[in-house]
Amino acid sequence: MDLILECSMDQIRKPPSCSKVKKGDLISPIERLERIVKDHGEVNSLLGGFRINVLQPTSFPWYDVINELIEIGQEVWINKVEGSIRINSKPEVW
Fold first, then answer.
1. Contact, 52 vs 87, CB < 8 A?
2. What are the mean pLDDT values of the chain's consecutive 10-residue runs (94 residues total)?
3. Going by fewer Cβ within 10 Å, which terminus of the chain is more open, N or C?
4. Cβ atoms 39, 18 nearer than 8 A
5. Calpha distance 81→49 (Å, rounded)
6. Is residue 12 part of a domain?
7. Is residue 55 part of a domain?
8. Cα separation of 22 and 70, whole Å?
């Protein structure tokens, strides 16, 4: 299988964030997050960042989601809103 690197430019001071995908595939950060989260949460784009509502906390891929957000230059915080866990992120500002 041919693999290429799919890259997204981050902040000016950081190198691009890349992940391996099949040749010919282009995947946006929100699509990558949706593939990681699957049916364990809902991913929404919000003002340059993301809001992820966790639907199934016990089976949610916590490490993979938080690592992906950090890798694409996002600041991440987690809170609870009306009994539901929410992951919020925004572009990292230096």
1. yes
2. 45 48 77 96 95 97 97 96 96 87
3. N
4. no
5. 18
6. no
7. yes
8. 23
